Amino acid sequence: MEGYISIWCGVGLYLVVDLEGIKMYWLPLLVGLLASGAYGQLTAQSSVAPALRECYTDTLLQNRNNLPPATINVLIDIIRHVEDAPNVNMGLREIAVSLLHTYRQDGIEYHQPEANLVNNANILPYAPTFHSFHRHRLLLTKLIPNNLQVLENTTLSSPLKCAIHNMLSTTVDARVQGNGNCNQFSQYRALRTARQVSDSDIADDVEILDPALLNSKNRMGQMRQYNPKNDVEYNNYGSARSERQLLGESLCPILTGVVRTFWGEVSAGHLIAGIAAGSESQRVSVLELAKGSVLNYANAQQTVSSVFAATLSGDLAEAVLIQGTERGNPTISIGATGYWNSTQAPKYFMLRNRVNIEMTDPEIRGDIDGYVLGSTLNTPLATYGSLKLSQLLDMYYSRNGVFNLETRACNRRSLMQQYITNANLVTETYTFAAALDTQMPLRGTITGGLDSLVDSAVTNFQTSIMNDLNCGSTESLSIDYRLRTNLYLVIDSTWQFDVIYPAISYLLDSIDVNKFGSSITLLNAFDGSIVINTTWSLADFHSEYTLIKHQSMFTGVNLQTSLTNIRTLMHERLEIDRMHNYVGGNATVLLFLLNSGNLQNNDEIWQQARILNETVPDLRILFTTSTNQMDNLWNLVRDMHQDIHTISLTTTVNHVEALAPTLNRIQQTGRRIINPLCGATYNREINSGSRTFEDFVEPNYINFYAISPNYFYSNNENRRIRISRTGAAMGSLVVCHSRSVTQPRQNATSHGLDENAITCQTIATTGNVEINLRNPCDGFSTINSCPFFYVSVQSTTNGVSTFSATCTDSACRFPYSVRYNVQIEDFGCFSSSASIGASIIVIVASLFINVFRSS
Ligand SMILES: *[C@@H]1O[C@H](CO)[C@@H](O)[C@H](O)[C@H]1NC(C)=O
Ligand SMILES: *[C@@H]1O[C@H](CO)[C@@H](O)[C@H](O)[C@H]1NC(C)=O
Ligand SMILES: *[C@@H]1O[C@H](CO)[C@@H](O)[C@H](O)[C@H]1NC(C)=O
Ligand SMILES: *[C@@H]1O[C@H](CO)[C@@H](O)[C@H](O)[C@H]1NC(C)=O
Ligand SMILES: *[C@@H]1O[C@H](CO)[C@@H](O)[C@H](O)[C@H]1NC(C)=O
After folding, report:
1. Nearest CA to 331 among 444, 204, 456, 463?
2. Top-level CATH class of 481-672?
3. How much is the pTM?
4. d(Cα 356, Cα 15) in Å, to the nearest integer?
5. How confident is the model at residue 736 (pLDDT cuts 50, 70, 90)?
6. Where are the domains of the chain?
């Protein structure tokens, strides 16, 4: 049990007692700042917080095209950066609170300076003036106050800081964007697979937009009685018309603070606020919230729940107050749909409406998720006290959920019904609206009828987000294995950036680049040099790979220099593996994604490919090119029919379809199991002896391995691998192997595989499975012709309803991952470089082709 007790010792000192180590620290807090109560609340003040200002002044950071995309995986990655930062030693609760206080500032808007202010270096034309700021200020100062220091400015790099600020902070940018044409999104329609649409509910549709339906249903109908020219700003500065009158000009205002997940767009600030509020859940006195003001509503409750106000009742109250005073309509409209203008690189989320946007769909989802996770936080923390915020989110937005299959995003609608009662929501909303009314400037005064407005809002909330995907349909759309592939991606800079960037972004999402999964290394096809060094961080990759970086790459493709340098790089990596006694666990793929036509191939190039083939046997080389280059490339890959693809990429292409064959090849490349002593030299005498590595599999997931014949070509009677469980965990492990099926599994027939080619064994709670590798290459005269040995390890948890926390060290992605050992016995080192025969056939064949082509 890990734990801390903080004792407030008066004059700016905290005594922190670490229960485990019985250590004590004195944390000096800045007395002056504490006295003013302002230290943690610079983001609650009515100017842009100092540490966030560079996100609005630096032109690179201001442009979201230079920042990582707003996806839940990027958000989790950035939170991991914070959790892993050397000076941040905080638990889940403190991290959630600190993230809010450091990076969230709602409602920041651009204000066009008057002519004479242009270029005034002392004025930043941004300020938190949008309505969402007022609730935000109450949140940070009264509902989730922070006695801790905010995170240091150096915790995150500037691009990551601005990215998380944008992901957490809700505001609307109503300036006219780009060419002002919002109706170019029909092309993205096809991309949205993750959504069910029923005819009756088209009006509630979120991400799919069918222009035909749009026209027939006149979705913008509400705007008829809304004349932009009448949209006078309440916070008009000076006598000139505020630039916020431009609200009427942009048909597609950008909603900030939105993060894409597989289960719909989520306002991450609301999500984290719910968790933070839940972590120190309290009832806050309404008089305290309304400090200095007179409450208008006599029949309001005395207190509000901080978790409700941070999430659902907060947004409902905003909608009630603003719509109630501005539109005078007795019906409060809840929910507003939007879309990303690029689904593969989600950076700008455009709303389809300019009015009634106080509680948009992403906010609804963020509120529900934040409320559910926040109000039930004690349950997962009781299961695993050292649970990290990144793990909580990773579990909730995954197939396995937060220690059970109930608490997960795909189950949102039933969680909402389970945890949120109508009566509670009405009371909390009414009371918080009364408090917020004293804090937020409105364009009218509510003199009565607040309760019916609240009723209307809550009723409409109940029928929102009806079309979100449920668990059943998402499971059929996702795979039950995770990749751990070191992907070396070689690109040439003749690709247009806005064509190649979304494609790369999609690939990285699909191969699960993260600290516990795949890595990405970006190389230049001009010479094979490193453009972006190996990283397991999506956020770091995206903040480095920008238009400027792309344009600074040397142009052209030189396969000879590239392959020579890549061969050297791969040999270095093998030597590093040898040094570290690395036995396996990751796959390696080299993917050339090329736009240049007419690639030059020659004998020298083929020689490099051959050496790679023979000395880096676990490397899968793939070519995906924009024109058919089969004739030039066929002799550089292992399997010319499956490893070479032609792709047609454009800015509007459906990446899911276009990249499917390439992605499939990457997915089929199993994690390697090697004899680390071989290095790049394959000295025959070296026997691995007995070696092990540890691996992890999530409940109901499966890991695939591939062992190259280079480690077992000549027979050794004792050669085998052994899979054994380590540590207690629920369920069984099923170990399968095959010589022909790259992804062997039980019940193979239902997956379209050949059952007879697969052998499976089960490990119950203890024990192990041994697979002998005796005479595995009998009948094959060359190493190259002898097939790989494929192994899989699957976790099955039939009948287990609650997962326990058995994987608690830093190597575990999920606390409920199941761990096991892979042991190898007497692996050898065999290289085909001696099998000249095979090589000569290929040389003759390539000569023949050349003669044939030139004649
Ligand atoms: C935070 O760091 C950035 C760059 O590292 C710097 O430009 C900025 O001024 C710093 N902000 C504060 C408030 O220290
Ligand atoms: C999305 O919209 C933003 C803002 O208007 C623009 O900068 C960006 O280029 C657009 N992206 C695409 C793919 O259209
Ligand atoms: C294998 O993957 C793990 C987790 O992603 C990573 O920590 C490790 O460094 C990788 N090893 C190699 C040799 O790539
Ligand atoms: C890439 O990273 C490795 C390991 O951190 C380092 O040794 C190497 O110098 C880096 N290469 C480049 C080009 O930055
Ligand atoms: C690499 O090995 C495979 C057999 O595994 C063989 O079919 C292919 O021709 C080889 N490629 C090269 C470039 O040597």
Report:
1. 456
2. alpha beta
3. 0.87
4. 48
5. very high
6. 4-33, 56-462, 481-672, 687-825
